[in-house]
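[step 3/7] inverse_fold.run input=structure_tokens len=427
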């Protein structure tokens, strides 16, 4: 039995499914998850000493690669001053100032420890601010695992949602309406009937949890207009795309200002930090100033803040996103070209340091399109690439991530391996 297999068997005895977050279990692609021992730059190594080019980057945070010397140094410095105080620090002000400076709509920001906490708290704040209960989300967008957000569309359009997880009560799910991403007409129809009783619309302004799906400009513009007209709080969940598609996030790239923004992943550089922030008048409703309660023992943890600040400083350097975007586009283009030469129905897309690969002839625009892609073929591709030492996301429904240390040489090597795999797929 291989070392990964024996670790997986051992893990399953004391950890449900052997993992601490479901997608790590390789359920959709099959096979044995790799247990990672260490990482450096664009690579990580499993328990058998096999090296992989890492295209998940901890699902987004590792935008400057693993163990970047400046981030490592900042973390080491912070560690020597103490792990956690439960009292404020100057570094928390610095990261708040940096976030407010970089993200156009954020006037005030509160740190939390996970993206789930950020979205859950932003929703409570929007409900407290508006005095309304209903929220809207979009099919295929993931916003963490708070009850109101584990919801799928009901039987008819514009109806009450149904839980997607056992343990979410139908009464809670019923307050969430699930609409189709990029469907402006449906959005208008919804606001026409229920807009005035809707507290918030939460959206991934670039979607990365149904593989990568880019928004249409018309969709984002309609969201902003309709929310303003109906007094509904527009929440951009930029946990994944913030500081990933552009320095100021999707809102800077598309020029649309939400009322609240959720951040995570990159702002912690691999440590557990997330945040929500936005309009000063809304943020003023948070405890200790206002009536909406929210708190956290480890919120603003000094070691995590140090990693986040060091990462933000690196990505704010001139040219960072131009380079990262060019690298990521090189990967997407190279994979598409290789598939076309082999005669495999495939497409790829990228934006900033995020990419999507689809076993479908055209880049999808909504969740239903992604479900139409050739998922068994993706699974075969995934395993062949894994054997070749290339670690893509282990699911056809996930986006991929490139870091600033994935050099052109690393990317070209990936494309060369993919070329070989595409030819065997076509045969
Ligand atoms: N929102 C988005 C857009 C995400 O991608 C994720 C996690 N992938 C979350 C929220 C939840 O974040 P966390 O896993 O840190 O709770």
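[step 3/7] decode complete -> sequence:
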């Amino acid at each position: 039995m291989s070392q990964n297999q024996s670790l997986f068997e051992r893990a399953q005895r004391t950890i449900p499914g052997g993992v601490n977050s479901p997608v790590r279990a390789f359920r959709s692609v099959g096979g044995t998850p790799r247990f990672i021992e260490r990482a450096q730059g664009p690579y990580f190594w499993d328990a058998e000493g096999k090296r992989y080019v890492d295209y998940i980057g901890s699902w987004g945070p590792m935008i400057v690669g693993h163990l970047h010397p400046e981030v490592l140094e900042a973390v080491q410095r912070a560690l020597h001053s103490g792990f956690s105080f439960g009292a404020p620090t100057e570094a928390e002000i610095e990261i708040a100032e940096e976030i407010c400076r970089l993200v156009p709509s954020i006037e005030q920001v509160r740190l939390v420890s996970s993206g789930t906490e950020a979205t859950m708290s932003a929703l409570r704040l929007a409900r407290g601010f508006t005095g309304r209960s209903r929220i809207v989300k979009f099919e295929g967008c993931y916003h963490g695992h708070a009850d109101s957000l584990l919801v799928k569309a009901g039987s008819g359009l514009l109806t009450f949602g149904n839980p997607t997880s056992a343990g979410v009560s139908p009464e809670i799910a019923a307050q969430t309406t699930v609409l189709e991403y990029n469907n402006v007409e449906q959005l208008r129809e919804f606001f026409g009937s229920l807009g005035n009783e809707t507290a918030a619309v939460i959206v991934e302004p670039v979607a990365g949890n149904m593989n990568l799906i880019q928004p249409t400009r018309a969709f984002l513009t309609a969201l902003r207009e309709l929310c303003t007209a109906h007094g509904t709080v527009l929440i951009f969940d930029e946990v994944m795309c913030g500081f990933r598609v552009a320095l100021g996030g999707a809102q800077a790239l598309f020029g649309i200002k939400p009322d609240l923004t959720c951040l995570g992943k990159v702002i912690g550089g691999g440590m557990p930090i997330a945040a929500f922030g936005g309009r000063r008048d809304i943020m003023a409703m948070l405890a200790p100033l206002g009536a909406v309660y929210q708190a956290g023992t480890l919120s603003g943890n000094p070691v995590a803040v140090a990693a986040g600040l060091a990462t933000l400083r690196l990505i704010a350097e001139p040219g960072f996103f131009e380079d990262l975007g060019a690298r990521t586009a090189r990967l997407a283009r190279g994979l598409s070209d290789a598939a076309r030469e082999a005669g495999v129905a495939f497409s790829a897309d990228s934006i900033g340091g995020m990419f999507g690969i689809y076993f479908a002839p055209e880049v999808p625009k909504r969740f239903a399109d992604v479900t139409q892609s050739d998922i068994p073929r993706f699974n075969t591709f995934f395993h062949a690439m894994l054997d070749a030492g290339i670690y893509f996301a282990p699911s056809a429904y996930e986006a991929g991530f490139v870091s600033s240390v994935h050099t052109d040489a690393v990317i070209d090597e990936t494309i060369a391996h993919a070329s070989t795999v595409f030819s065997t797929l076509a045969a």
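[step 4/7] annotate
Residues 59, 114-116, 119, 142-144, 204, 208-209, 237, 239-240, 264, 274 surround 4'-deoxy-4'-aminopyridoxal-5'-phosphate (CB under 6 Å).
The mean pLDDT is 97.
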